[in-house]
Amino acid sequence: MHPSxxxxxxxxxxxxxxxxxxxxxDLEFLIGTLQVxxxxxxxxxxxxxxxxxxxCRDCQSFAASCGLPPLFIAIDQEGGQVARLRAPFTQFPxxxxxxxxxxxxxxxxxxxxxxxxxxxxxxxxPVLDVAPEGVESVMAGRAFGSDPGWVAAMGATMxxxxxxxxxMAVAKHFPGIGRTVLDSHLALPDLDIDAKTLADSDLxxxxxxxxxxxxxxxxxxxxxxxxxxxxxxSLSPAVTADxxxxxxxxxxxxxxxxxxxxAIKPNLTIDTTIGQIMxxxxxxxxxxxxxxxxxxxxxxxxxxxxxxxxxRRMGVRSVERILRLKRRFLAGPWALKYENPRG
Length: 343
Fold this sequence. Notes:
about 350 residues, 8-stranded parallel barrel, two-stranded antiparallel ribbon, alpha/beta, TIM Barrel
């Protein structure tokens, strides 16, 4: 495999955060040298609509000048507790306050228009976690509710209205964290749930999202003992390869939650984490903070692609899924160059 091909195949599987509100040397390195496939924006990156528009435009222009496909540019804009974009962007009370599918449709229509207007093309929403009654769920303030059918209907409506307006929706946090009371931002929660309860409740909204051709699915940093007693969902072949892709039939883009979170980073090296992601058939590693882990992750993927034919085949399939999604939502002449990432 040619070095330039391995660099591209590695970089496209990273979605990364950065510091600053303008195009800078770090972004030039991430895009031009590492060839990352996506960026994620946080409050530290956003100020005014004009500033965000210029930032996104400059990043996309630089990627194009490097001969690369367009970038995923993502943000967490759920409304309510998690909304990186503040006024003058429209503010919503959040999923728990919604009482009719029209509320979900209105949120998605307005938010999609505002994101498109500033150059953001992916929203890390909707939250499809089911928060059962009687559980002090960490997701109580962000979930649509406790009824799986209701969560599925609201999520499917949101996905439909986002995606028909060109915004890629990412359903989260598979296979569902509504039952957890420990915050995975701080530590690794364990959830012992039987397969029938999971299928009858937590997986119902995700199955609806798959039926609605959701652009992406984000994995949780929760360890589900009944599925995999060793690895959290984000690093588990049993969760992605067997359950999500095998049994549920999802062949779209799968990404981790932020690998900088407390459930992952204090306990595992970036080499171990990335190695598990590749084995598990996860497409995108999400690393939300500037630091050496981003370059280390890219190098780990690149070396594995060169050294292991099996991982290379899986890696090529991952990048094919990523490019297929980019062609679907970010169409343009760039696609002709990357019809087949095998080179």
